């Protein structure tokens, strides 16, 4: 069961880092028997940057035949995209720490590391 904490100060930092993304001292455990005062969405995680693109070249091979060469990329600047920070205030050692990068790696438009896909297609 998730227990919402009490918010006693602004959790945002002027210069957040991966080791301290928000101020964990801004939260305390709720009074027993009550829900905490913290609202949903008071901690804003890191930005996601995932630029992609594609280039196609069609080559005619006759009346009804063609060849298509295509290059697809995702995250072509290879910008690191980080996961959300740990937010469990009962674990003081890891609260506010971003411990991993986003490594989806499942579909072409994910936010993981740079990927380049080359395709060659014969159409008739």
Question: Brief description of this entry?
Answer:
With about 120 residues, this protein is mainly beta.
Summarize the helices and strands and which ones pair or pack.
Blueprint: E1 6-7, E2 27-28, E3 52-60, E4 66-74, E5 115-123
Antiparallel strand pairs: 1-2, 3-4, 4-5
Description:
By secondary structure, the protein is mostly beta strands. It has no helices and 5 strands. It has strands spanning 6-7, 27-28, 52-60, 66-74, 115-123. The strands form 2 sheets. A 3-stranded antiparallel sheet has the order 3-4-5, with no helix packed on it. The radius of gyration is 23 Å and the shape is rod-shaped. The termini are far apart. The mean pLDDT is 85.
**What's the alpha carbon Rg, rounded to whole Å?**
23 Å
Estimated share of beta-strand residues: 25-35%
Distance between the termini: 58 Å
| Strand arrangement across the biggest beta sheet | 3-4-5
| Global geometry | rod-shaped
How much helix, percentage-wise, in residues? under 10%
Q: Topology as H/E string? A: EEEEE
Structural class: mainly beta
Q: Give the helix tally.
A: 0
Number of strands: 5
**Main sheet?**
3 strands, antiparallel
Mean pLDDT: 85
Poorly predicted runs = none
Features:
25% strand; three-stranded antiparallel beta sheet; 124 residues; 5 strands; 0% helix; mainly beta
């Amino acid at each position: 069961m998730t227990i919402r904490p009490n918010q006693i100060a602004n959790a945002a930092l002027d210069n957040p880092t991966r080791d301290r993304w928000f101020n964990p001292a801004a939260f305390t455990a709720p009074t027993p028997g009550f829900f905490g005062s913290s609202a949903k969405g008071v901690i804003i995680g890191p930005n996601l940057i995932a630029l992609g693109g594609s280039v196609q070249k069609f080559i005619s091979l006759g009346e009804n035949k063609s060849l298509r060469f295509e290059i697809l990329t995702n995250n072509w600047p290879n910008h690191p995209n980080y996961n959300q920070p740990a937010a469990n205030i009962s674990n003081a050692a890891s609260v506010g720490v971003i411990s991993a990068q986003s490594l989806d790696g499942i579909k072409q438009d994910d936010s993981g590391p740079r990927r380049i896909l080359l395709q060659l297609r014969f159409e008739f």
